[in-house]
Amino acid sequence: MEATKTVPTKKFGNRGKLVVFSIFVVVITLAVILFAKSYIFSGESVNVPDAVTKSAGFSIIQPGKVPAKFNVTREPYYDGEKQLVVTVFVSEDGKKITLSQQKKPKNTDLQQIDAKEKYLTDIGSVYVLKGEDGKQQSIIETSDSWLFVNSDGVLKLTDYKKFIESLEV
Question: What are phi and psi of 101, to 5 degrees?
Answer without folding.
Answer: -125, 135
